[in-house]
Amino acid sequence: MGRLLFIEFLLMAIMSAALAQQPNVIMIMTDDTGNNIGYQGNPYVTTPHIDSLATEGVSLSNFHQMPMCTASRAGLMSGQYAEHTGAWRTSLGRTMMRGDVYTIAEAFRDNGYATGHYGKWHLGDQQTGPLGQGFDQNFGGLTWGHPKGYFSPYRNPQLKDGPRGEYLTDRLTEETIGFIRGNQKGDRKPFFVCLSHYAVHTPIQAKAEITKRYSSKKVVDGQDNARYAAMIESVDEGIGKIMDALESEKLLDQTLVILYSDNGGYGGATDNSPLRGSKGMMYEGGIRVPLAMRWPGTIPAGSTCKTPVIGTDLYPTLANIASASLPASQKLDGENILPLMRGEKKLRRDSIFWHFPAYLQGYTPRHGAFRTTPAAAVRMGDWKLIEYFEDGALELYNLKNDLGEKTNLAELESGKVKELHAAMLKWRKETKAPVPTEKNPGYDPKAVFQAPKRK
Question: 0.85 cut: is pTM over it?
Answer without folding.
Answer: yes
